[in-house]
Amino acid sequence: MRYLVIALFVSILISSCTQKPSYIKNEGYVFGTTYHFTYESKTNYEPELKALLNEFNRSLSTYDPNSIISRINKNDTLVVADSFFIQCFEKSMEISKLTDGAFDLTVAPVVNAWGFGFDESKKADSALIDSLMHFVGYEKVVLKNKKIIKQFTGTMLDASAVAKGQGVDVAANYLEKQGIQNYMVEIGGEVRVKGINASGSLWKIGIDKPIEDPTASNRELQDVILLTNKSMATSGNYRQFYEKDGVIYSHTINPKTGYPARNSLLSTSVIADDCMTADAFATAFMVMGIDKSIALSKELDYLDVYFIYADSLNTLQVYASEPFKNLIAK
Question: Counting beta carbons within 10 angstroms of the beta carbon of residue 74, is it exposed (0 to 12), middle (13 to 18) or buried (19 or more)?
């Protein structure tokens, strides 16, 4: 009997030592939105992830008056850019050039005027927009020796169109540094995945049907894709908008005109290796419209795209690049 107990104990010990780690789920709020992290690990890294994202927020949040970007917007001559800000700025300048200014960090003054920025006053009129456009243009700011140099002091930066995606990358890169091979990191709908889920399958990511619903309570899926080792970001005007005097104003502002983008595109989903790139291009495509977006996406072989747009009869249509089509769950 004694030998049986010892043998049983050894068997249990060996089994516990070889047991695969389970999948841990973290969820909560960050950057004014929700986050969901799922990863295969024996250790719960949520405290470290939250601390890291709070540090990231102190760099790029325009809602924190003491953040690096807020101090830059207030023309604080002592502020020095950290690694988060530098990465964001350099990637943003790269995409601004590729999109001919459809993506632009300096759009902040007009975004604020329309009521979609950190100053939600909704005070836009043609005279104000014309005056503010003097300060808009990505070529009017440069980064030198970790400091932003502005052509005009009235120029302000807003990283909201890229920061969520970058935050996803920050969290995902942290998990990878811990040796985690299977994870999903999602912040406010922007997502990066690696490996497989707890069921041993590819990660299932939904694409919302563009239904006008600012509360997000009435959600329908347009499609579901199976994804691994990639990032996806989606941009659309069907949730972030407001109505004034019978006119609907969308949150996507065209940096070239200073006015809300008006075209047939309703939703853009972009797949890239990193989520920051996907996030920025998703916004840029919403500004560019369907034809220019398709043309540019074909030139950039590191992007896969899925566009929902309205045709001349106001019927929903979908354009998907060939690699993207292969990811759609049958």
Answer: exposed
What is the pLDDT confidence band of residue 219, given thresholds at 50, 70 and 90? confident
Place of tokens 């850019």: 81
CATH 1.10.3980.10 positions along the chain are 66-150
Helix residue ranges, H only, the chain: 2-18, 46-60, 68-73, 83-98, 108-113, 126-132, 160-177, 275-288, 290-299, 322-325
State residue 302 phi and psi, 5-degree precision. Answer: -90, 5
Residue 289 clears pLDDT 50, i.e. is over it: yes
CA distance 222 to 208: 5
From residue 18, give the alpha-carbon distance in Å to each of 11, 15, 59, 181, 214: 11, 5, 42, 17, 48
> Could you tell me where in the chain the CATH 3.10.520.10 domains are found?
191-325
Q: Span 191-325: which CATH code?
A: 3.10.520.10
Query: Which of 324, 231, 299, 96 has its CA nearest to residue 307?
Result: 324
Per DSSP, 213 falls in state -
- Rounded to an integer, what distance in angstroms lies between the CA atom of residue 249 and that of residue 106? 20
CA dihedral 206, 209, 212, 213 (to 10 degrees): -30
Quote the pTM value. Answer: 0.89
Topology classification of domain 66-150: T-fold (1.10.3980)
